[in-house]
Prior knowledge:
It contains 13 helices and 32 strands. It is α+β, with helices and mostly antiparallel strands. A hairpin with a 2-residue loop joins strand 22 and strand 23.
Amino acid sequence: MNTTVIRSGRTWRVALAAVLLCAAGGVAVGEWMGWPFLAAPLQNFLSDKLDRKLRFAEDGQAATGFAVRFVGGIRLETKLLEIAAPKWSSTPFMVRAEDVALELRYVDLWRAYQGEPVRIESLQAATLNGNIERMADGRASWQFGASPVPASQPDTPTRLPQFGRLQVSDGLVHYVDAPLSANMDATLSLVPGTVAADGQAATVVKIEANGHYRKLPLKILLASSAVLPSEGGQTSVLPVAVAINATVGRAHLDFKGTAPDALQPQNFSGQFKLNGPSLAAVGDPLGVTLPTTAAFKTNGTLVKTGSNWKVVVNDATVGASQLNGAFSYDATGRVPVLSGKLGGSRLLLADLGPVVGTTSTAMADAEAPVAYNAKTKGRVLPDRPFDLAALRAMDANVLVNIGEVNLNTSYLEPLQPLSVHLQLAGGVLSLRDLVARTAQGQLRGDLALDGRAETALWTADLRWDAVRLERWLKITRPDGAPPFVSGQLFGEAKLAGQGRSTAQILASLQGTARTTLRNGTVSHLGVELAGLDIAQGLGMLFKGDDALPVQCAVADLVAKDGSFRPKVMVVDTADSAVWIDGSLSLATEALDLRAVVVPKDFSPLSVRTPIKVQGTFSKPEVSLEKAPLAKKAAASLLLALVNPLAAVIPWVDLGDADAAKRGSAGCAALSQRSAGKK
Length: 678
């Protein structure tokens, strides 16, 4: 009985071994043959799992050249591999490849099942055509299954498959991305390269793309010689060398650097050269708010890590401006944030154009013709609208330090240097801690532009100290004549306005402005001519002009609805006192000023009548007040009837020392009051 049991056990083990041997042999034969009979079952199985039709041959034809192996991973060879597009797509397929060799590791399939990006160990194809799509609601053609979950944030970057090896002789991919407003066709060629230093096979990538990105025309040429990521999506020892030549909209980029993956450059770094007609042309494709400026060219280094950008600008030429800086841009939050430092040797305000509400000559020549309203003809103040939406698109925190700021006029000395802290938060642009030196003096204060509403609210709190007028006003006189005016200018201004352009804000200004001149002089000839003192004016012309000390000079102005009116505006010298009243309107650009000169000394021949400055900023008109002249002319005519020599009596000016003294006392008191408020 024991012998029978032993024999039965041996028989069972032999049978099991035979079965296992046959199974192993069958598997070995199947692996060797490539399981050709599994083409249809595998095709149906994958179609069911992907909820997409997948096929290894044209409909009604046999899957020739099909082979699949499962030992150590999945290795598939087929003459055709086609994955259908999702049901909501109108494209004929998502991917269609010919002469395909595909390798997948089981560990990568498990990670993909856990939600990680799909990784393909190796994909080789003679031809590959693709239609990659993403809808506005987040649905994407690379999402598989019966009920794919749309992306929670449709504007997140596309997560394409990762590759250990990718070789495509001839490829064409049509890419449509609604959240990015992208629509482009890309031709690609990925061919075997040399063996890298770490022993892994390298790949040469050549991609040319044409189409639109963020509704802007796009053309990209990309070349890369690289080792693609290997284990688990980790980058290889040697980074991917990437060279890009791209034109997006009106901006052109040349980039040479490295990236972990040339086909998914979410992270990269390198050197760049960038140029275009305006910095705004760069911000548009990047989704970054940059100002509209004159034409520019720049170079530097760029590092991108996910949604974070870091840029070091070695040299930037914007119009005639020379700038540099270091910036970081973080797009991970609800509102993107730009921070950094802006420096440079020279900045022309005209190059910033619409940022300060103006358009430089170069920009105006480059822009298309604009039909202007007839009412704006002849106006001087810039009326280009602000881009208030751009103020609300991001936040910023930038320290600015410029060696020289040119005010876009040859009559004023530049600011040398200028430093300011620029902050943009919630649509409010602030220029804080402004410090600018000019003409041996300085300007300090704060400016703000609140763009949260439909119209911007502008406020200014400025102070200027010890600005030497003879240097700030760059007006040279021939033959070494003294400057028309000199001295140190002190003052302050607190103003506010509202509007959608510089002109509208200035037209609504409210506030006050006070300024005084200390240790000053004025042109003696200018004072005599202002008082229409013909006799003394002729004398100055013969003997030459000289500098007349200013005893007091004060301007105390009040602004209301864009119109400035002086409480007191006087220049007092030992020779004469000049009093000015009237108004200056920034709303209509109209001038209505009246200057009265009160001589303190005797003059044998003086017209002495108030001078009027009227008209507009673009066409000022200077005239004499006619009533006093008519009275003097009538008196001269009557006296001439009595005695011709008596006709000059009305033109003789004895001076008004008492009135001048009273004016000087009032001027000095106002000057002291203004100084006490500093």
